[in-house]
Design brief:
The structure holds 2 protein chains of 2 kinds. By secondary structure, chain A is an all-alpha fold. Chain A is built from 13 helices and no strands. Helices cover 73% and strands 0% of the residues of chain A. The model of chain A has no long low-confidence stretch (mean pLDDT 89). The radius of gyration of chain B is 18 Å and the shape is globular. Classes of the chains: A mainly alpha, B alpha/beta.
Chain lengths: 293, 258
């Protein structure tokens, strides 16, 4: 027997385990780095961005004659794109995931579709942009417009919605399904009353990730929805959606890259970050309300 | 049909039932009658087909891919595997309690009203009445009456299982299928559920799968012994345990295998 295993030692006799200590220090150091990076990142944007914000900056359109800059049209475009893209992709994504997980019988077809969605989620967004331009702008005749952008983004975030919803559905225990079916629930009733409420959190994660992807998207939208937002929104909702317009990210790219106007770019960045934070809180709030009902 | 009608105490009549999981022949020509207002215990070693048989009675095997069933199961003279059977109605009549407690992640009240609501009961007064009756029926009313809005998952394992029994009672079934309902529970909870089963058989016909031979002897009126997908013998429980007809039954209940 090795004396390493001897019991002839008091349990208060603490051993020195240098690797354990080193391991902890490295872990703490790394988590500290991550935290510091995030804080630094947000802080630098807010510190440099917030001074650029003013009421007229937020509520007006750019005016080349008076040389003033306003981002109201882009804010509206961004919100339109987020809202309508979610409106399209939540039902399709959640419905598709329910089909794949609960209804589809053909295992090979399911894994083929899953492989396809995984591949799609790794495709660079500029390819979605080209596809959207050719199909939605030209073939479907939507021209370069918010609608074309919305449809393009719908396809782009669909894999995220499907994957996260599928993961959420998979994590619902089989015993819940058995319990419901055993009482005579039809499949759809079981999905509606047990599976969807139980996977709400996962679906919510999908929505938040999707919003993040939409807000950060520039390449795909530049090609499909347009590269500038010069005018205040006017006309009916349909008129607005069928005209071209840039979102905040596209605007940011334009100011920072083509014009070298970093102050405006940081201002837009600050607005973007605030919008993302607000939307995440709102999504959580809505899901919380749904959960308690 | 005549054969069935003459035995008016028979609740479920199984005739030449075969079941295949793909190539596996899991039930071989099972013929078994379940008496009304009795407790029928299904015993046998793991993999003998007793749970599979239980699930043919409310067609829970339908949800598994690759299952093929031939033969007939009659519930009150109606063929469970006949044409035009609505499994929703079948499973309302034939309720089920599973091996491990599976309350839904919702309140105690909502767990009990899940079935009734599904079958269209909407009035609050009726639902309240069903909840009280079902929880009393499952001997758990006193423990939960003051916390109806609490999550069912906050209950202990034994309480959860009685809640699941109450949930099954809430749709007012005729038959209650129980698939090893106490195997995940401690002895005290097990005793409570056994007492409950004795009480429930006044109003329901109960079929229970159990691994525990003492339990079968304690609570059942009839016992059926399954081995390798075959029904070896079925009799009054006293008969099975005192003078089994088949050598294999005797070997099993005396603990020589299984």
């Amino acid at each position: 027997m090795s004396d390493k295993l001897s019991n002839d030692v008091a349990i208060t006799d603490r051993k020195k385990r240098p690797f354990e200590k080193l391991f902890y220090s490295v872990i703490y150091l790394l988590s500290g780095c991550v935290l510091a990076l995030v804080i630094y990142f947000i802080a630098i944007i807010l510190i440099r961005g917030l001074p650029a914000l003013s009421l007229s900056f937020l509520t007006s359109a750019p005016n080349p004659i008076q040389q003033t800059i306003g981002i109201f049209p882009s804010i509206v475009n961004t919100l339109y794109i987020i809202f309508f893209t979610l409106l399209c992709c939540i039902p399709i994504g959640v419905g598709g995931a329910i089909y794949l997980n609960e209804y589809a019988k053909n295992k090979r077809l399911v894994s083929a579709i899953e492989f396809a969605t995984e591949t799609l989620s790794g495709v660079p967004s500029i390819l979605y942009g080209v596809f959207g331009y050719v199909v939605f702008c030209l073939l479907f005749g939507f021209k370069v417009s918010l609608i074309a952008g919305i449809l393009t983004l719908t396809i782009m975030v669909l894999p995220i919605m499907i994957r996260t919803t599928q993961e959420a559905l998979k994590s619902v225990p089989v015993s819940y399904r058995e319990g419901a079916l055993g009482m005579g629930a039809t499949k759809w009733y079981m999905v509606r009353t047990i599976l969807l409420p139980s996977s709400l959190k996962g679906i919510l994660t999908g929505i938040i990730l999707s919003i993040g992807r939409m807000v950060s998207e520039s390449a795909a939208l530049l090609l499909t929805a347009g590269g500038s937002a010069m005018y205040m929104p006017k006309g009916s909702l349909w008129d607005q959606l069928s005209s071209s317009g840039s979102t905040l990210s596209v605007e940011l790219y334009r100011y920072a890259y083509s014009r070298g106007d970093n102050e405006t770019a940081f201002g837009i960045a600050a607005v973007l970050i605030l919008i993302v934070i607000l939307l995440n809180l709102l999504t959580r709030f809505i899901a919380g309300r749904l959960n308690t009902q | 049909m005549n054969e069935v009608e003459t035995q008016n105490k028979v609740k479920i009549h199984t005739k030449n039932l075969d079941l295949f999981y793909g190539d596996v022949h899991a039930l071989k020509d099972v013929n078994l009658d379940i008496q009304s207002h009795n407790v029928t215990a299904l015993i046998g070693p793991s993999g003998c087909g007793k749970s599979t048989y239980l699930k043919t009675l409310n067609r829970m095997n339908d949800t598994i891919d690759g299952v093929k069933i031939t033969g007939d199961v009659f519930l009150d003279n109606e063929n469970v595997y006949g044409k035009g059977v609505d499994v929703t109605i079948l499973r309302k009549k034939v309720g089920m309690v599973f091996q491990s407690p599976n309350p839904f992640p919702m309140s105690i009240y909502d767990n009990i009203t899940y079935g009734p609501r599904m079958h269209g009961v909407k009035k609050r007064i009726e639902l309240d009445e069903i909840v009280e009756k079902s929880l009393k029926g499952a001997a758990i009313w006193d423990e939960v009456k003051d916390r109806m809005k609490k999550s069912a998952l906050s209950l202990s394992g034994g309480q959860q299982q009685r809640l699941c029994i109450a949930r099954a009672l809430a749709t007012q079934p005729d038959v209650l299928l129980m698939d090893e309902p106490t195997s995940a529970l401690d002895p005290i909870s097990t005793t409570k559920i056994e007492e409950l089963i004795a009480e429930l058989k006044k109003n329901y016909s109960i079929v229970i799968v159990t691994h525990n031979m003492q339990q079968a002897a304690r609570i059942s009126d009839d016992t059926a012994f399954f081995l390798l997908g075959e029904l070896i013998e079925n009799h009054k429980t006293e008969t099975i345990f005192s003078s089994p007809q088949d050598k294999r039954t005797e070997d099993y209940i005396t603990g020589r295998f299984g």
